[in-house]
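Person: Show me a sequence?

Helper:
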Amino acid sequence: MSATPVRSDNPAALALAVRHRFRLAETLPWLLALAFYFAFPRYLGFGTELLITVLFAISLDLALGYAGIVTLGHAAFFGAGAYTVGMLAKHEIWTEPVSGLFIAAAVAGAVGFASGLVLLRTTGLTLLMLTLCTMGLLEEIANMAAEVTGGFDGLDSLPIKPLFGIFEFNPLYPYTQYLYVLGVLLVCFIFVRTLVYSPYGHSLTGMRENTLRMHAVGAPVRMRLIVCYTISAAIAGVAGALWAQANAYVNLSVLGLDRAATVLIVLVLGGYGRLYGGIIGAVAYMVLAHFLSKAYPTAWQLGLGLLLVAIALFARGGILGMVDNLTRPYKERKAQ
């Protein structure tokens, strides 16, 4: 029996039916990232940091933007992944980079699952504060276990093996790090894209919009939120592991409030729940922070603050939301 075709006179239904399809324009960010490698070899360290920030933002977007899980402690999972790789490498237990990502993802995912079982019983401000407390708890544990984690000084000169036994990780010339992080980011992005456009991803959006209605139709809301939180934590752990491998260093900053707040600002700038909002927001934040810190070393955060105020007042959906508002008349005329 053939599937019922979507009527072309229903723009909303048509948009839902085709939104999962790959579009040629989606290759543009990846082509630009590859072009950056050849065009700006002196800025590959900055580029590597940018790509890691994008991956971290995508992990948070999955939990916050799609499932509606409000969190201010997502750096807990970033730090869990970073410290997993750092401790294993520093104590010469495991130094292979690719398999190290899987180990970091497993540890961060386990932390996300264990904390999600408790935290996701709550909502709103209570959930926000509990996620922040979880991050602070892990930071204090890392600080107190100085014999293993390095404490306040962290773990430096991590002996990471060459990628595939061939390509060396050189902090001064991060050619390998950039392409390595870009490849991992692409794989994770494809996974998240597939997930959010799947029936499971649609159910997450339904829970974000109306939890009571999803309960009414029989959806296992809490378990699906826990699964989403675990997956999000695992991807954040991969981002943290990449940060530790790329810098051959890990310290308490990976578990700090600054990192958690930064990734939240990135999503606000780009637009959360938009898939590409993390990419746009990370580029906007990192580029602006780079140039503003050069122009105004003592007051560069003022410029970012003013931009955030403007986004909050005039572009509630972030940069992507603003673009949608500007192009909506054209799309409506085309649909007629």
